[in-house]
Amino acid sequence: MDEDVLDELVKVATSDAAPDEVTPPLGDSWNPRRVAWLRAYHRHRRSGLKGGEEETAAIRVDGRIVGAIRLHRSDSEAPESLEYGIWLARSWRGLGLGATVLRLIVRRAYELGALRLIARTTASNSPAIATLRRAGATLQQRGDGTVHAEIPLDGEHR
Fold first, then answer.
1. Per the confidence metrics, is the pTM higher than 0.90?
2. Residue 134 in this model has a pLDDT that exceeds 80
3. What is the Rg, in whole angstroms, of the alpha carbon atoms belonging to the chain?
4. What value does the mean pLDDT of the chain take?
5. Which of 4, 108, 142, 155 is deepest in the core (most CB within 10 A)?
């Protein structure tokens, strides 16, 4: 993600996404601290999974950035597992884009040698849960209100 892409991603995030959907809680709104965190986060991941533990990418539709994804090697004990995250601009939600992006993420994780794709969401995020379920994920609701999803990356799920 070069600086031009990052500039466009920040513009989309700050104009068409809630801050807590894109960054950790760093105040009540989009503020300079959050924007700086977002820029640093993506800059730090430019080396990708081959040079680090995480990679990010912008999601483009018809040349416009509409969100971002990440793939993360979250467990050194299970390097065959990758965790993914996604956020989409509000104006691009509900159009089936999440399912399309998830299929691309599954393919990328498989190409990287992962055997499992992990996702975490909240129990109230019914669109994400439905997308994960359609992708063949096994879902486990946790006591803290989160949902853990796991997609096996075998021939059936590529």
1. no
2. yes
3. 15
4. 90
5. 108
